[in-house]
Amino acid sequence: MLKKLITEVNHFKRQSHNFRILVLTNLVYALVLPVIDIFVAAYIMRNSNDTSKVVIYQLAIYTGIPITFLINGFLLKHVNIKKLYSIGMMLSGVSMIIMMSLKTLNLMGIGVAGITMGLSFGLYWSNRDYLAVSTTNDNNRNYYYGLETFFYTIIAIVVPAAIGWFIQSKNGEEEKHGAYVIITAIVFVITMAASMVCYRGRFENPIQKKYIFFKFHPLWYKLLSLAMFKGLAQGFLVTAPAMLIFKILGEEGALGNALSIGAVLAAIIIYFIGRFSKPADRIKIFAVGLILFALGACLNGAVFNETGVIIFLLLLLIAKPLMDLAYFPIQLRVIDIVSKIEKRGEFVYILNHEAGLYAGRLLGAATFLVLYYTLSEDFALRYAIGIIALLQLCSIFIGKKIIAQGDKIAPEKEEGAVDTPKILEETASNLV
């Protein structure tokens, strides 16, 4: 077992300097992502008991992101990308400070905190996506995202459990609020540490300075439709676990426990899938993730009790990394192909891709809010996720078309793909 671990470490060391620094930067910052994604929503739920405010907060975030993508395109002409990347990470801590300083959670305060978090995510994701496409190639992207999702999944187990325990150890609302303040301070320190790691990279700004175009290759339009379906779930899925746990399970401690069950094994499996799979396996991985998500969402809607929520969260913990592991390399390969055909810089497509995501996010959040206000909160929580999960299954067919068209334009240089079931068998043997 130790020998296999050393082999994996050596494989990581053989990657380029910027590859390693980018992974390490994202690894450090990943420590705060569960706090941002889950416990800020839990804080809103605890202090308002209103799921619509959580979704409105999420909408404010998703409104700030595309605006910041545009601003970042301008700033990249004048400011080093490492500085913008670092500012993006640190702004997430600022957003949490704004949220914790609110005496009452009114829509104005939630909106300001959400927009600030959107500015943070916009700077973070736009620069991170560009660095990913410029630092990796199609042969090592499965490994890159497999490595990231492995760490993210482990962190998504440990951090929620630890924070949930910490909050639950406090008595009374005042002490619990104090716990959130301490967590916010820790988040700010971690974002500073991630920024310091980022500065060790030798990252360069995009060469092309024009980023806004309105006509694209047909392959790109197919990817935009896939992005819309991805954004559909993001519309409120980030905060859905916290809403379900407060309504069905009860407290933050339950949230930590629910996310911990069996997820270590899932993280290891995802790592090995990323490590040994080939580009041709991506659609299989994507399909498995989408189907698991749909199964969990439909089961939650059918039973809508503690067991259903826990099973949904566990399946989501497996499904989301699988979907991301497949989606991002597909996206970056399309950028590689289309940018060469149209002779444009990669950041053009990273910026335009956000438009597809934003359209889907608005539709996803609107689905929840319409069900919430026209029917009931329970109906929205129970069925909106299932509706969106079933719609997302269309992504499998769109993904197949994208890969097929991409292979016609730029055939893979690699030899045949590794069969995903065999990857799982190899993973099992590696664990023994």
Automatic annotation (TrEMBL):
Keyword Membrane annotated: yes
UniProt key word Transmembrane helix: yes
Gene3D superfamilies assigned: MFS general substrate transporter like domains
Listed Pfam families: MFS_1 (PF07690)
Gene Ontology molecular-function annotations: transmembrane transporter activity
Keywords: Membrane, Transmembrane, Transmembrane helix
Parts of the chain that traverse the membrane: 21-44, 56-76, 83-101, 107-125, 145-167, 179-199, 219-248, 254-273, 285-304, 310-334, 355-375, 381-399
Name listed for the protein in its UniProt record: MFS transporter
Organism name: Flavobacterium alkalisoli
